[in-house]
Amino acid sequence: GENVEQHPSTLSVQEGDSAVIKCTYSDSASNYFPWYKQELGKRPQLIIDIRSNVGEKKDQRIAVTLNKTAKHFSLHITETQPEDSAVYFCAANNQGGKLIFGQGTELSVKP
Amino acid sequence: SAVISQKPSRDICQRGTSLTIQCQVDSQVTMMFWYRQQPGQSLTLIATANQGSEATYESGFVIDKFPISRPNLTFSTLTVSNMSPEDSSIYLCSVAGGAHPPDTQYFGPGTRLTVL
Prior knowledge:
Chain A is mostly beta strands. Chain A contains no helices and 11 strands.
């Protein structure tokens, strides 16, 4: 079945630096790729998503890129702030319309 | 996005008992899902709650252990039956569709379950 691999599992950056999280997926039919941010004790929150008809999408300090040929997509956070510290999950949809989640990346932004 | 609530927010239960978790949305949605998230882990889909018919379960999850109801387009319940300590986890509902794209999921706040 569909598999989504996410790297790295942990990421530590200095405030102001950029952070990049990468995911690969196995189902070539996947066409929707959301990213969720989960703070400790809170629900996963959708922060950005991308569909297969575009290669990049940006929203202020966050951006997502998609390479359908290579079946990978990435989350880019620029000018990181301590409040960006959280666990980030990527996901890809499958033919049944469900989401398959990556393993998560714990991002720590040090002041 | 839709306003989603879950009850209870947390509970501590004895093994062998059952707990029913409720998920309520403030607007009609097409899809409702139930997930389990064990400590420090990713989200695992338990089942899709279908309105007016039996839920669709993922591999490793069965109706006898996790019965699900969805009587209408804004409400669903998940029951964790005959609980054991291994069922200790966070249970989350998510919704999609309605006023939002059909594949964009929004999550409820979760129910933290501890089984002793």
